[in-house]
Amino acid sequence: MTEPREVFVRLQARLGRPGTAVLERLREIQSERGGIGPDDLTRVADELRLPVAAVTGAATFYADFAEGCRGRRHVRVCEGASCFASTGGEHVRELERVLGVPRGTSAPDGSVSLQAVRCLGYCYDSPAVLDGDRPGTGRDLGGLLARQPGDSSTDSAVRPPPPIPYQSLVDPPVVLAGLLGVEGEWQVWPDVVAGGTPERVNREIAASGLRGRGGAGFPTARKWSMAAGESGPRYVVANGDEGDPGSYCDRLLMERDPHRVLEGLALAAFAVGARHGLVLVRSEYPEAVAAMRAAVRRARAAGHLGRGVHGSDHDFDVRVVEGAGSYVAGEETALMHAVSGLRGEARPRPPYPTSRGFLARPTVLNNVETLAAVPWVVRHGGAAYARLGHPDEPGTKLVCLSQLFRRPGVYEVGYGVPLRYLVQEVGGGLRPGHTLRAVQVGGPLGGFLTPEQLDLPLLTGPLAGAGVPLGHASLIAFDTTVPAAAVLRHEWAFGAAESCGACTPCRVGTRRGLELANRLTEPAGTAEPAGTAEPVGTAEPIGTADLLARQEPLLEVLDTASLCAFGRGVACAVRSVTRAYADEFAGSSP
What we know:
By secondary structure, this protein is of the alpha/beta class. It has helices at residues 4-15, 22-33, 38-48, 52-61, 63-66, 81-87, 90-99, 189-195, 198-208, 220-228, 249-256, 258-272, 286-301, 332-339, 368-380, 382-386, 419-426, 460-465, 484-498, 504-518, 544-561, 565-580, 582-586; strands at residues 73-78, 105-106, 112-117, 128-131, 134-137, 166-168, 235-240, 276-281, 317-322, 363-367, 396-401, 409-414, 436-441, 447-449, 475-479. The termini are far apart.
């Protein structure tokens, strides 16, 4: 039986009416009216000549639309791992007090609303908030927590955060080459499209050994060849839905060097024979959305995009789509639905997007960091890139260090460097007054390592052997002030909040896991920081042994029956918490 979403995809393809404007129109209506009603859904469907069910599905799926009425002043506060590690969740509770509204609600007079999100991309100076589209960071959230409770005035802008620190520890820099002034914009594309061949581009990418940098690590050349071997129109998509708490390197690239991302996307399109490209940027990155759209306009004006690019017979143009709040929309099949204006739910694979993606056509999807490396590889050759890094994993990786490090920021390193080098030498260890308890590697679906395990190298295989996926390679430091029970609850809460709900094992399993974690008694001699746990209600408390016994069957189901990698990632992350904090859990009483 064909899933409803796929029916809508096929309808869009047959009628030539992709719903790329659906999210944009819904956002406009919400901004004008403070909410989206049934009449609005019908009007958008009529405007875009789409089924009302398709538009309704999108409006009820995404967090930006499904949180109810939005106040004239809308504040988004980060509950991601770095912000949580910085305050134990206390900053969220304090902001609720100052604004006078709980998370997920708006004031009765419509003056202010508060939305909790899982990452805003300011993990280097967490905790973070977006007041409208104005970011604020630090312990007082850019000054918001210094105001009087209930002051919801719209004319008090937060203090802007510091810029993202970045540095390349490889010579020559690759992904950071543009930001460091080593290479300029659009230096490769004009010559390639005017006089090069797709075979040459594909040859260099294959020789480089470049793999996806978004977490899956799939060989880039193989993905491109799969799509190129399909018939009919093809598409290329840049995945800028960087939802992993702890990772903010894609935001850096999209905001500060967007032309390098677009050039990589154009080269990918040339290699696979695509004439249309899309960039999905998450709504939590408003500056990145604006920067990418401005870069597209400039690229068109300079002749890099459009019809007959640089005198060739190759047409190529790009559309930027702003997301609406969904972690799972970063998964490749869910992202195909998101850029089509549909619910961002995953679907079974195969077929893979390389054979049936956007508009049910062959589609190449690459992460922003992956695309930013492509111009360097094509210019300098795949062999030069392959010499960087490690024989098992060639090339470079952007690693993000969180706020508790002395020197947080984005660092370009070669694969294979020890994690201890990143933590102690690059990051400088933790800030004064903090003692390292664990490091979360690779985001919320990654895993936790103790300080004794940091001699592991930055390589997929050895980390996987320790039960920790490399993922996006972000490093979030947790100190000794955050109890094990609170960390476990935080992991389950992330899974419950961000599950797309497409499959029962993940939808029900994550919520059941959170219910169990909320009942866990505290280890002796510790106290949980305020604001970290969901209400326990009247459920009877349980001890560690009981929790682990009841939790393991859930993890088994998530591991084996989840539709996509999200459920399996939650299971992996939860297991890693129980291993890394085994000594604390052993002290929990029944």
